[in-house]
UniProtKB/TrEMBL annotation:
It catalyses: cytidine(34) in tRNA(Ile2) + L-lysine + ATP = lysidine(34) in tRNA(Ile2) + AMP + diphosphate + H(+). It comes from the Bacteria. Its EC number is 6.3.4.19. GO terms for cellular component: cytoplasm. GO terms for molecular function: ATP binding; tRNA(Ile)-lysidine synthase activity. It comes from Peptoniphilus porci. This is tRNA(Ile)-lysidine synthase. The gene is tilS. HAMAP family: tRNA_Ile_lys_synt.
Amino acid sequence: MDKLFCENLKKLNIIKKGDKLTLAVSGGADSMYLFYNFMDIKDELDLDIIVCHLNHGIRETAKRDEDFVKNICESYKIKCITKTVNMDKYARENKLSSEEAGRILRYNFFRENSKNRKILTAHNANDRAETLLFNIIRGTGISGLVGISEVKGDIFRPILDIKRREIEDYLHKNNLAYVDDETNFEEIYTRNKIRLSLIPYLSKLNPNIIDSLLRLSKNARDADDFIKEIVEKNYKKAVKENYFVVDEIIKIHKFLACEIIKKYLIENFYAENILNRDNILSIYNLFFGESGKVLQLGSNISARKSYDKVFIEREKAEREKRYAKLKLGINKTDFGEIFISRDERNSEAPSFIKTIDCDKIKGKLFIRTRQSGDRFKPLGMKRNKKVKDYFIDRKVDRLKRDKIGIVCDEEKIIYIIGMDISEDVKIDENTLNKLVLEVRNVRY
């Protein structure tokens, strides 16, 4: 076993005795270095090892590489799982770059065959440096300067601190076989151009460019860890269920606020591809805008400010809630389940419960949504008030106003669900007959 590999494995402390491992082996120098060294410690650590090899289906020598990996695994009595895909076709169908398509197909394949296993890839120090440059070229924040991490979920990268030159030297000195992917020496992908042209050019300016980039990566990681710690402390105060608390966001530094917004987008809308600096800054500016302002983020997703809250939500068509007559007993409506009784409770824990004077009701009861010109005399008030103004005063979210159930008799509004009953139906010293309204499973 390579001493450098051994020292690196101990430092990372990511492999335990008795682990079940999947080695991602392409047949190239990096993955074979990973393979040979794990063969040396397999018995000592009682490791359960399988190998996964994906044939991307894009070059004539791919079958040669697949057979090489199969034969090596057979000689070491290691189970080898292979699969052939059409990477270019997948990229076209999903409108992806070939590099991104290959990455997705590889990790999907590894995970398909790695239940309860750690997946080990052969990314090395040069890969980390190349990724850092790739991120800089595309435009990145501090987290992008970290580059590749040693551990990310079920993916482990135990040789990430070992340089490609050191890997090749070890293989050559010990006459250990591997195969070369000829496309690695062609400037057909962005990463290849970085590896074959950009890094050699930068090496003329700084012979230790790889070490410098790795140092930058480690410094960025320390900064990123610190930022994440501060973000986590503020996140719980600034984000509640499905909205941001405006007062919490506007009182903190813009950078921290944007990191909180970024974290929320990653956790809730990552697949929608709306995570970019323009959207983050636009959402941040929304906190200082007027209530009711709406911002389109793309992919049928919008951000909007509603008084002291900012919502980011998927736009969806909802059917209009239906009018329904109400009777004694259980009434199942679009607004929730409403139980009406003379003077008894049907549930120990209804969502809302109100008691009114039955004799002050005119005609039959029904439930509906608000209508233009609706007026209402809230409990404790002497005059009617427009329902629209009532909602505004209570800071009811604009999108919820047309979903709230309003219980009426044939003359007036009796009760706005979850809010006030009417002054006109309140119980007083002259009340003889009561009516109890219980509302459960309220739907706004």
